[in-house]
Amino acid sequence: MLQKVALGMLCLTLLSVCSYGQSSGPDDPVQGLPGKWLNGLSRKIAGAEKDLTSQTEKYLERMRRREQRMYKKLYKKDSVAAKALFAGSAGQYAALGQRLANDTGNGGLHLSGEYQAYTDSLQGMLKFMKDPRAAGALTQLTALEAKMQDADQIKEFVRQRKQQISQYIQQHTNLAGLLGKDYQGLNQDVYYYSQQVRQYKEMLNDPDKLTKQALAILNKLPAFQAFMKQNSQLAGLFNLPGNYGDPATLSGLQTRDQVAALIQQQVSAGGAAALQANLQSAQSQLDGYKDKLSKLGGGSGDIDMPDFKPNDQKTKTFWKRLEYGTNFQTTRNNYYFPTVSDFGLSVGYKLSEKSMVGVGASYKLGWGNGIQHIAFSSQGMGLRSFVDVRLKGSFSASGGFEYNYTKPFSSYQQLRTWNNWTKSGLIGVSKTVSMKSRVFKKTKLQLLWDFLSYQQVPRTQAVIFRIGYNF
Fold first, then answer.
1. Statement to judge: residues 20 and 162 lie in one domain
2. Burial of residue 22 (number of CB atoms within 10 Å: 0-12, 13-18, 19+)
3. Each residue of 450-467: pLDDT tens digit?
4. Could you point out which of 53, 283, 299, 444 has its C-alpha 20 to 30 Å from the C-alpha of 390?
5. What integer pLDDT is reported at residue 197 of this predicted model?
6. Of 196, 230, 264, which residue sits at a domain end?
7. Looking at residue 25, what DSSP letter applies?
8. How far apart are CA 189 and CA 85, in angstroms?
9. CA distance 150 to 101
10. Up-side HSE of residue 73: CA atoms within 13 Å toward CB?
């Protein structure tokens, strides 16, 4: 309900701003929503621009250092070849980074590379709105598009550098051992940077629900349609006239119906059947190629085939590599303690798609001595570290080291006595079960063996079963 109200308020304000060329007064509550939306859009664009610039500078500096190391190694063997292969590359890396950092798009943009439909529509929407805040967001978007084009040129440059060095190593196989390690690192940097840029493009071309619906409504307005026909990137690319829908404008050109009629006259009945069969076969092959390309490059035409096993986590930010979880376990009743349940929280850092390390903490809640004697009490706490390595399918090898405070306590001051903490060394197996839930994406079942439990007095439970949820 709130989403519909927000959408309605946004669209009403957009229409008001676009129709009358002025914004509402400062006390108008309707004006606040587009302001929040534009501010959120500006933050998203500014964040992407900052991250793209930072990541590009990092990769360029890393690749420059790799080439510098290769230059020094090769110079000792062949100074002439070293100068010919690496002369001026450091200055080129610095110039490319400086150009991207300072590019604001004021010199004009030219449509190149992959066409971003949403970005084009968003740019037209901001131009169409008569609002100073929209103009500010448009300036940021133009700068980001310029940096995206610069990033494409940087990718092309580093690919050419990789190819030049690769050709030299192939021609001088005796130097493969000397330059091979740094060249392999350069190859990985080129691949990961290409993937990083592609992710920024996908992020920019992924509108939120409110923006999608607002664009859908604006696209129904004749005024907005006419505006996009003259001001979109595609219109500029094809130099379309404003009245290109008028038949008089296209005089002398064949229409689609005329072309279809001509084909119908030229193709006989038997020929039409053969043509249809060939078209179906070609379509089937095309679908197969599309499927392969989608698997290799995420459906993008921007593909750089790696000759190593890539780690997709390397292109993600630190926060996006974190995975949060919760778990619980129940220990059996014994002479010393009542039945206790451990409720734990954890945060893991993905090293790769198959491995993760993390830390966590747990709280031990006592339930009493049975159904007839239920009593809640604080029975301890735990500090945890863990590692998970996927074995096959949904099974993983799990291990960890933990400290557990296994005595009842009434204040946190008691937890400072480290002599009362016991150690646990865990090793075992985990199975992950996917769930169709927006919150708990995965259920993890763990069977662990505490190989340090036999050293504890009193002896703690050796076999532990935990159920966890990751989100």
1. yes
2. exposed
3. 999 988 877 888 999 999
4. 299
5. 87
6. 230
7. P
8. 19
9. 10
10. 15
Q: Which helix (H) or strand (E) holds 301?
A: none
Q: Where are the beta strands (DSSP E) in 369-420?
A: 374-392, 395-405
Q: How many residues does the chain have?
A: 471
Residue 290 within a domain: no
CA distance 330 to 465: 8
Q: How far apart are CA 387 and CA 389, in angstroms?
A: 7
Instruction: Please give the structure tokens belonging to residue 229.
Output: 């026909």
What's the confidence (pLDDT) of residue 442? 80
- Distance separating alpha carbons of residues 131 and 30, to the nearest angstrom: 14
Query: Half-sphere exposure of 210 toward its Cβ, with a 13 Å CA cutoff?
Result: 18
Number of domains in the chain: 2
State the number of CA atoms in the 13 A half-sphere of 58 facing the CB.
11
**Alpha helix stretches (DSSP H) within 78-131:** 79-86, 89-102, 117-128
Residue at 242 is within a domain: no
Most distant CA atoms of the chain, gap in Å: 98
Domain membership of residue 173 as a residue range: 2-230
Show the tokens assigned to 154.
């940087």
Backbone angles phi, psi at 62, to 5 degrees: -65, -45
Cis peptide before 458 (omega within 30 of 0): yes
Contact predicate 197/52, CB 8 Å: yes
Amino acid at position 299, single letter: G
pTM: 0.67
Instruction: Dump pLDDT digits (tens) for 196-253.
Output: 888 888 877 777 666 776 677 777 778 777 777 777 766 665 555 555 555 554 455 5
Please state the φ and ψ torsions of residue 439, each to the nearest 5 degrees. -100, -60
**Helices 2-20 & 32-77, crossing angle to 10 degrees?**
90
* Euclidean distance between CA atoms 204 and 223, whole angstroms: 26
Tokens at 332, concatenated: 């059996």
Write out the two tokens for 265.
């006259």
Within this chain, do residues 87 and 221 fall inside the same structural domain, yes or no?
Answer: yes
Q: What angle do CA 125, 203, 469 make, to 5 degrees?
A: 130
Which residue, 170, 196, 230, sits at the end of a domain? Answer: 230
Q: Tell me the three state secondary structure of residue 248.
A: coil
Element (DSSP H or E) covering residue 330: strand 322-331
Report which residue type is found at 9: M
Do residue 52 and residue 200 come from a single domain?
Answer: yes
